[in-house]
């Protein structure tokens, strides 16, 4: 599996590389003042919205605020979303993933579970990754898996980059929820997609994991660093990443819940 991509995060600050006041990205170039914090009691999520943006605009946001990536976006993108709270504050890009097949594990209630790793798998991880891996995906052994399914890559869409240009963890969580709902309902979402998938750089996950879990995502395992021989070296490939997946049916389920709020 190729792992060019990914959601990068800054420790505890959720994808945020602070602007030094001279940032010329679409978020900051015309900004007169930073976004104000919503007063207590005002539902923050009501004020977050999603609008499609151009690839150029998304690229400018990633270039300025996505800590790990540089260079162009992969051309096979399906959609770019601008994340708005008062003004544009971030971006998410959706595309087909690079893998051609993925094996998923389920319990007897048909719930998505992490891959059942062995003790040896955990011990083989680097010291700084192992404890986190144990807390994220342990407790699943072969006996808790009822059945598996091997799905082709065209059943997945990858949330390839999630990037916020301001220090607002709530915004990341709210806008992720709205963006995934917007995407699965839009004509940009190809027919037959069953899962959204994303990768979070290990050791830099910050509050990303909490946000994903709160929105129906399950950590299904880790991906190991890899180097694609035919591409220029990118630091992000040297990282372990947590792999998160979310059934599209769950996105619809959450939409139903939020309508009743
Ligand atoms: Zn900026």
In short:
With 261 residues, this protein is an alpha+beta fold.
List keywords for this structure.
261 residues; alpha+beta; Aminopeptidase; seven-stranded mixed beta sheet; three-stranded antiparallel beta sheet; binds zinc ion
Write the layout of secondary structure elements.
Blueprint: E1 48-52, H1 55-65, E2 77-85, E3 87-95, E4 101-106, E5 112-113, H2 119-123, H3 130-137, E6 147-152, E7 156-164, H4 169-185, E8 195-201, H5 208-214, E9 218-223, E10 241-247, H6 248-259
Parallel strand pairs: 7-8
Antiparallel strand pairs: 1-2, 2-3, 3-7, 4-5, 4-6, 8-10, 9-10
Helix pairs in contact: 4-5, 4-6
Task: Characterise this structure.
By secondary structure, this protein is α+β, with helices and mostly antiparallel strands. It has a single domain (1-261), classed as Gcn5-related N-acetyltransferase (GNAT) (Aminopeptidase, 3-Layer(aba) Sandwich). 23% of the residues lie in helices and 25% in strands. It has six helices and ten strands; from the N terminus they run E-H-E-E-E-E-H-H-E-E-H-E-H-E-E-H. It has helices at residues 55-65, 119-123, 130-137, 169-185, 208-214, 248-259, and strands at residues 48-52, 77-85, 87-95, 101-106, 112-113, 147-152, 156-164, 195-201, 218-223, 241-247. The strands form two sheets. It has a seven-stranded mixed β-sheet, with helices on both faces. A three-stranded antiparallel β-sheet has the order 5-4-6, with no helix packed on it. Helix 4 (169-185) crosses helix 5 (208-214) and helix 4 (169-185) crosses helix 6. The chain is globular. It binds zinc ion. Zinc ion is lined by residues 19, 23, 25, 27-28, 64-65, 165.
């Amino acid at each position: 599996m190729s792992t060019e991509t990914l959601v990068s995060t800054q420790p505890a600050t959720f994808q945020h590389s602070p602007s030094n006041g001279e940032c010329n990205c679409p978020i900051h170039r015309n900004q007169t003042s930073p976004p104000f914090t919503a007063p207590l009691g005002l539902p923050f999520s009501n004020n977050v919205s999603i609008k499609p943006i151009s690839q150029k605009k998304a690229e400018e946001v990633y270039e300025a605020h996505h800590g790990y990536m540089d260079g162009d976006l992969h051309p096979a993108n399906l959609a770019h979303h601008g994340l708005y709270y008062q003004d544009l504050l971030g971006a998410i890009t959706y595309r087909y993933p690079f893998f051609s097949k993925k094996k998923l594990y389920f319990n007897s209630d048909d719930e998505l579970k992490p891959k059942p790793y062995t003790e040896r798998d955990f011990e083989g991880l680097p010291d700084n990754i192992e404890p986190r891996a144990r807390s994220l995906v342990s407790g699943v052994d072969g006996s808790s898996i009822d059945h598996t399914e091997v799905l082709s890559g065209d059943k997945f869409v990858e949330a390839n980059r999630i990037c916020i240009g301001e220090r607002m963890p709530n915004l990341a969580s709210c806008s992720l929820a709205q963006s995934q709902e917007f995407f699965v309902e839009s004509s940009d979402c190809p027919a037959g997609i069953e899962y959204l998938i994303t990768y979070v750089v290990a050791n830099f996950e910050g509050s990303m994991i909490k946000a994903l879990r709160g929105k129906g995502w399950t950590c299904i395992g880790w991906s190991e660093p890899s180097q694609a021989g035919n591409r220029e070296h990118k630091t992000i490939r040297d990282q372990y990443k947590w792999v998160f997946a979310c059934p599209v049916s769950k996105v619809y389920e959450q939409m139903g819940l939020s309508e009743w709020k």
